[in-house]
Amino acid sequence: MKLLIVVSKLLTGFDAPSCSYIYLDDKLRDHTLFQAICRTNRIDGDDKDYGHIVDFKELFGDVQHAIAVYSSDELDLDAGSGGDNNVQIKNWIEEGKARLDAAREALHYLCAPVPPPREVEQFLRYFCGDAADPNALNETEALRISFYKSVASFVRAYAAIAQNLDDAGYSPSEQSDIQHDVDFYSDLRAAIKKHSGEELDIKPYEADMRHLLNTYIQADPAQALGALSNVSLTQAIIETGIHDVIAKQLNEKGKLSKNAVAEGIINNIRKTIIRDQLTDPRFYDEMSKLLEDLIQQSRDSAKAYEDFLKKAEDLVRKMATREAGPDLPGSLSGNSEAVVIYNNIPDLHATGFVVPADEDKRADLALEIDRTVREHAPAGWKGDPVREREVKNVLFPLFNRDRDATLAMFEIIKNQSGY
C-alpha cells in the first residue's frame, strides 16, 4: 500500500513501520496529534532512518507543545531499547544533507582500492574477479553486495533532497559532481550486475507466475503479449544473437574492451550452469567442460575474438535446447524428463543397484521411473516432507532398494519442472 487516507481511525494503537510520510490536513491536538506524528517514527530496514511530516495546517507549534508534554519527566516513559524514548523533530534538509554526504563518502571509500585508470573495466575486474577463475564470483560476492547496497543508499539519499540542493548549501559545482556520481554509480551497478550474471532473470519463473495469477486471481486468464524485457543475458543471446546483446546490453556505452565483454559473457554462462546444475547434472557437467575450453580459447586477434563469440553463442543455444545427441534411444523421443533420467542413471552413486549395460534396457528403466513418478506422486509433493517420502518410497524398489541411488535420482527428479 503506497497511500492511505485516514479520517478518524488508525491514529492510536496502530503500528506501521513502513510508513515514511504523514501529511497533516486536520486540526489535531494534544494526544491525538502526538500519536499521529509517531506513526512515522518506526525504523523499517536499512532504507529508513527517519519519518517525514508534511504539515498543511501549520501545526508545528502544537507539535512542539505535544512533544514537550508527552516527553516531560512527569510521564513514566519506557526507556526502550535505545535508552531515550523521547521524540525529536529535526530539520529534514539538514538530516538529508548529512545522510547524502555519509552515503557518498561510504561509497567512495568502498571503491578506493579500484586501480587506475578507474574506468568501468577496472571496476568490473575489482568487483567480479577474473572470469577464468571459477570461484571468482563467489569470492567477490560479499564485495558486490556491499556495493549494491551502498549505491542504493546513495541514490535514495540523493533523491530525498534532489529538489532542494541549493537550500542544503551545495554550490553549483558540488551539485554537478554529486549528479555525476549518481549517474556513474547507477550505470556501474547495472554494468556489474550484467557482468556477473546477477541481473534479475524472471524467465524461469514466468510460467509459475502465470499459473499463480490464473489460479488465485479472479481475472481473465493472463495472456503473453510479447517477449519479457527483463530477461537474462543468456536468454537475450538466444532471442536476438550475441552481437545484438553486446551492442544493446553488455557494452551499450562502448566503454569495455573485448576482453571485458568476453569475461561478462563467461560469467553469465557460468551463472546459468550453476543455477541449473541440479536439473541435469551430467548434461551441465559437459557444459562446464565446454565452458572451460571456451575460457582457454585465444581472443587476441579480431578473427579469434569472433570465433570466441560464435562458440559462446553456440554453447548458450546448446544449453537452451538441451541437445541430447544422435545416439539417444528412439523410445525416449519427446520425453525430456525421461531423457534426463536416462542420461544420469550411469552416474548415480550406488551400492546395490546395477546400471543396465544395454542402452534399450536403461531407456526402459528411465521410462518406468518417469511413469511411476507421474502416476504415484501426490499433488504439491515438492517441498512437503511427507509427500516427498511417498515419492521416494515408490522409487525405492526400482533401484533394487538401494538407498543412495534412490535419493540421488529423487533430487534430480525433484528439480525437473515437468513433474
Question: How are the elements arranged and paired?
Answer:
Elements lengths: L20 E4 L5 H8 L14 E4 L4 H11 L21 H20 L8 H9 L7 H4 L1 H21 L10 H25 L9 H11 L16 H8 L1 H9 L7 H19 L4 H16 L5 H20 L14 H9 L14 H18 L8 H11 L7 H12 L5
Parallel strand pairs: 1-2
Helix pairs in contact: 1-2, 3-6, 4-7, 6-7, 9-10, 9-13, 11-12, 11-13, 12-13, 14-15, 15-16
Features:
2 strands, two-stranded parallel ribbon, mainly alpha, about 425 residues, flat, about 55% helix
Order of helices and strands: EHEHHHHHHHHHHHHHHHH
- Total strand count, please? 2
Helices, by number, come to 17
Give the N-terminus to C-terminus distance in angstroms: 36 Å
Query: What topology, given as strand order, has the largest sheet?
Result: 1-2
- General shape: flat
Portion of residues in beta strands equals under 5%
Helicity range: 55-70%
Q: Largest sheet, if any?
A: 2 strands, parallel
How does the helix and strand content classify structurally? mainly alpha
The pLDDT mean sits at 81
Number of domains: 4
Low-confidence stretches: 73-85, 222-230
Describe this structure in words.
- The longest helix has 25 residues, at 172-196.
- The chain has a two-stranded parallel sheet.
- The relative contact order is 0.06.
- It is 55% helix and 2% strand.
- It has helices at 30-37, 60-70, 92-111, 120-128, 136-139, 141-161, 172-196, 206-216, 233-240, 242-250, 258-276, 281-296, 302-321, 336-344, 359-376, 385-395, 403-414, and strands at residues 21-24, 52-55.
- With 419 residues, it is mostly helical.
- The protein folds into four domains: 1-89, no CATH class; 92-196; 203-212 and 233-321, no CATH class; 330-414, no CATH class.
- Strand 1 (21-24), helix 1 (30-37) and strand 2 form a beta-alpha-beta unit.
